[in-house]
Amino acid sequence: MESISLEDLKEFLKSNKFELQPTQKRLCFPIIKRIYSKMAIGVVFENINVCDLLLINGHHRYICSLLLQKTIGRNPWEISSQITTYQWAEINIDSKDWELPEIISRHNEKDAIRNSMDIRLFEGLT
Fold first, then answer.
1. pTM of the model
2. Is residue 32 part of a domain?
3. What are the residues whose beta carbons fall under 8 Å from the beta carbon of 32, sequence distance 6 or more?
4. How far apart, in whole angstroms, are the C-alpha atoms of residue 11 and residue 4?
5. Which of 52, 65, 59, 61 minimizes the C-alpha distance to 107?
6. What is the domain count for the chain?
7. pLDDT at 61
8. Is residue 28 part of a domain?
């Protein structure tokens, strides 16, 4: 799959069993699309943070890695005693972008450096 649709994402979240349980209630679809597009061309992302089977940080990266059947590294992480968990099928998907263009540019720069890639590869990825 070259890109991901909102419908594909919703169906994936509802129809799959996941090893890790989410600790956030929402995902941002534009962020999913950007990460998905980059992962599809071989960009390796920072590790996600996990405590036991709870996903603490990296929800968007985790889902994209599963969609594309790519491995993503994991860092062991500590959590506070006050954490809420959710079910993937009940996650809300926000179609509004949570990131400003400046933040997206910063992510692109970091990803290009980390992967020794030309940043121009990321132009037009959605």
1. 0.94
2. yes
3. 4, 9, 60, 63, 64, 93
4. 11
5. 61
6. 1
7. 98
8. yes
Phi, psi of 8 (to 5 degrees): -60, -45
* pLDDT computed for residue 1 by the predictor: 57
Is the predicted pLDDT of residue 46 greater than 60, yes or no?
A: yes
Contacts of 71 (CB under 8 A, 6+ apart): 65
Rounded to 5 degrees, what angle do the CA atoms 8, 25, 47 make? 80
85: left (phi over 0), alpha (psi -120 to 50) or beta: beta
Structure tokens at 120: 């121009």
Q: Is residue 91 part of a domain?
A: yes
Mean pLDDT of the chain: 94
Distance CA(42)–CA(64), nearest Å, equals 12
| Domain extent at residue 46 | 6-122
DSSP-assigned beta bridge partners for residue 21: 54
Residue 118 in any domain: the answer is yes
**pLDDT tens figures, 68-123:** 999 999 999 998 778 899 999 999 999 999 999 999 999 999 999 999 999 999 98
